[in-house]
Amino acid sequence: MIIKSEYIRRKLSYINSIVEDDTKQKLYDINTSAEYIFMHILNDVYGWSLINANEGKSNFPAIDLIDTVNETVFQVTSEISTKKVRVDTIEKFNELVKQDEYKQYAHYKIKMFYIKNKPNFSDKILEEFANKGVPKSHLYGIEDINRTVSANPTIATKVFKTLCKILHDKVCDSDVPSNLTIKSSTHDSSFIGREDEVKAIDEMLESSDSLLLINGIGGIGKSSLANYYLYTREKEFDYYGFIDGLDGFISAFRNSLDLKSEKQEELYHEIISKLQVLQGKKLLVIDNVTDIESHKNLIEMLLSLHKYDYKILFTSRRKIKNVKAYPLGTLLPTDAQKLFLSYFKTDELEKVDKIISYLGLHTLFIKLVAETIENEGYSLDDIIEKFEDENGGLSQIEYIDEESGDEVTFNQNLQELFSMQNLSDEYVLLLKRLAVLPSIDIALSFLEEILGKERLKGRLNFLVGRGWLTENEGVISFIRLLKSLFWLIMLLVLRRLRI
């Protein structure tokens, strides 16, 4: 179901713009339609019994709507001049009720409804109107409608249904749920920091064709950030969804879109076609995009959705063509400390800072180390000692993997996280040579000077894709983790090469 208050706000703004445009062209038929629309809306919002004044009396002058139950008359207008209130409404109505056929309305309250925000009359003018029977509280505008429907879901539903019926809007007939996918965002109480990153995502989705890629090394927190972003923003959208990898793209939408096709390519086209016709604001988060080459056609179809008012947020270690990348860095030191303390409570902050510095402010390893201390009974001094062990003592620490329930070592986790087990000796040797360099931005041209040009660029791009390095316009950046865990990386390299 679409967000009712947002839908109402957009439709009322649209009606106002049409009235203003037609009035400028001296076309006044739309004003009659607007009176009819707002008559129903005012009844929904305030519980009145307004009818068109002409229903009770043909060509009823001075006013547009009348409520004989609550003894009220309304002037509906887009004109914000004082003359409209003073002369065209108050004076005309007061003259009108002097006539015998209208005397029964003489004691009725006079109210104004503006098909826009209310005019900002001075206190002196407001006092004059009040003295003539039209106090400030009798002046209503679109902002009053929007404020009420935003605060009251029951009233919002009434107004929503009224607008749908009057405007014959097919969006109201949609039986597609707001959450388009099987998986939805969840609130992760361990998610810490990243306020600046959330703001940056908002800004970049507004200014980059509504497409954005959170790009970074493994374990840095891309998925957590994307999930948190959806969790905090989903109420701003009519439809939203979280897709965990493109391999699960079809199953994610199968129920919500009532898919009928059988073949994979046909299902892709059916999903995209059904997504295109949904009305309103939409947000899709597509997490952990891998095998970009094999999913090339699907990605191209997804990118086309930005033309249909979709914002799409990807996460991947790899770059995606035609999608602006937002490189996600490590945590701020203060946030890294908070993350550590959320898993292991201690007052020894200097030791904590030393450990998180060793870990390069890397999200996943901070979590794993802190949990291991908490669950396995290590002290902070034990961990620091193992960090400083030249034989790679920390790499042998075991902890319980949350998903498998098995005991694994940090050595195993690092290999899996950075796909170490799949690296050939050639890349392991290149990592060994790179690991002795400082963790700074280094131009590709300089690396070619010291390492040789032959196939270097291609091999570096491969390591970028695996998450070991980052690259931007010919500048190679060594992730801080690579330097901070130098002892562990070298241990892996030495064991692999049997040196």
Précis, in short:
The protein has 499 residues and is of the alpha/beta class. It contains 22 helices and 15 strands.
Give the termini separation. 63 Å
* DSSP helical segment count: 22
Q: Which regions have little confidence, pLDDT < 50, spanning 5+ residues?
A: 483-499
- Structurally, the number of domains stands at 4
Based on secondary structure, the structural category is: alpha/beta
Q: Could you estimate the helical fraction of the residues in percent?
A: 40-55%
pLDDT averaged over residues = 80
Q: What sort of overall outline do the alpha carbons produce when their principal axes are compared? A: elongated
Topology:
Blueprint: H1 4-24, H2 29-46, E1 51-52, H3 53-56, E2 65-67, E3 72-77, H4 82-96, E4 109-114, H5 123-131, E5 139-141, H6 142-151, H7 153-167, H8 195-207, E6 211-215, H9 222-233, E7 239-244, H10 249-253, H11 264-276, E8 282-287, H12 296-303, E9 310-316, E10 325-327, H13 333-343, H14 349-358, H15 363-376, H16 380-387, E11 398-400, E12 407-409, H17 410-417, H18 425-435, E13 441-443, H19 444-451, H20 456-466, E14 469-472, E15 475-478, H21 480-484, H22 486-497
Helix pairs in contact: 1-2, 1-6, 1-7, 2-7, 6-7, 13-14, 13-15, 14-16, 18-22
